Amino acid sequence: MGLNGKDLIVDGWFHERGVLWPGQAMSLKVTKVLDHFQSDFQDILVFESESHGTVLVLDGVIQVSERDEFSYQEMIAHIPLFAHPNPKKVLVIGGGDGGVLREVARHVGVEEIVECEIDEGVIIASKKYLPTLAKGYDDPRVTVQIMDGAKFLADNQDSFDVIITDSSDPVGPASVLFETPFYNSMYKSLREGGIVCTQGECMWLHLDLIKPLMDSIRQTYSSVEYAYTTLPTYPSGQIGFILATKGRTTCKVPERKPDETIQQELKYYTPQLHQAAFVLPAFCQRAIYGTL
């Protein structure tokens, strides 16, 4: 097993100590370990927590907790999808827990949803222990590819209206997803007018990762923007999204809005919050864009 369970859970508490956030940690009280195994790619831990429901952990880092997952899943999916006037074909890279699929499936105009996940172990664990997220796999429009996302992109160019990359942090198997060549591959797989939305790390911790990546892809994409959401179980309580377009000037203003029925089902996303997500604190605005 890649990680020692005794190092992760001490005196009944799970402790997340990540290499990308030195000097700080996140702890949750554990009521029951549901599963802990090593897949072909990473250490997978699932436990029941006292205050956050079921929690999925990959290589010692929290990916999902039932209490707050909706803020991440809804924003990473609905910002790009509602920023597009008529998305028909959507690719999700990563996101093996199924939460992004669940949100994409709310868009009745989408005709095809492809899930490309390298680690089938994440899908298996999520279907067993996180059915409220994994129900996204039940949609008949979904097809699943268990393979490397970069390879899939190379084989499917000029194919997708929206590509959503729901990745873990840039260490281990997900490191390639934060590099310029991967973004170039996504660009080639977008149709004209298409949108890419990727997990964009934390403004409080990772501006040294965010800015160089955004700068490097601006020469390729028509627009490159940073938005964010908040949730308690991610480092510093915040996570960002990098949104990049092919032949589109911005993602800040939604082209469509959820109907009343869908809006009542959503717990976080609103059209107003869509626009507000791009309004950055002064320090972040200066660091990423160089100006207020």
UniProtKB/TrEMBL annotation:
<dbReference type="Pfam" id="PF01564">
    <property type="entry name" value="Spermine_synth"/>
</dbReference>
<feature type="domain" description="PABS">
    <location>
        <begin position="11"/>
        <end position="246"/>
    </location>
</feature>
<dbReference type="GO" id="GO:0005829">
    <property type="term" value="C:cytosol"/>
</dbReference>
<feature type="active site" description="Proton acceptor">
    <location>
        <position position="166"/>
    </location>
</feature>
<dbReference type="InterPro" id="IPR035246">
    <property type="entry name" value="Spermidine_synt_N"/>
</dbReference>
<dbReference type="GO" id="GO:0004766">
    <property type="term" value="F:spermidine synthase activity"/>
</dbReference>
<dbReference type="GO" id="GO:0008295">
    <property type="term" value="P:spermidine biosynthetic process"/>
</dbReference>
<dbReference type="InterPro" id="IPR030374">
    <property type="entry name" value="PABS"/>
</dbReference>
<dbReference type="Pfam" id="PF17284">
    <property type="entry name" value="Spermine_synt_N"/>
</dbReference>
<dbReference type="InterPro" id="IPR001045">
    <property type="entry name" value="Spermi_synthase"/>
</dbReference>
<dbReference type="InterPro" id="IPR030373">
    <property type="entry name" value="PABS_CS"/>
</dbReference>
<comment type="similarity">
    <text>Belongs to the spermidine/spermine synthase family.</text>
</comment>
<keyword id="KW-0808">Transferase</keyword>
<keyword id="KW-0620">Polyamine biosynthesis</keyword>
<protein>
    <submittedName>
        <fullName>Spermidine synthase</fullName>
    </submittedName>
</protein>
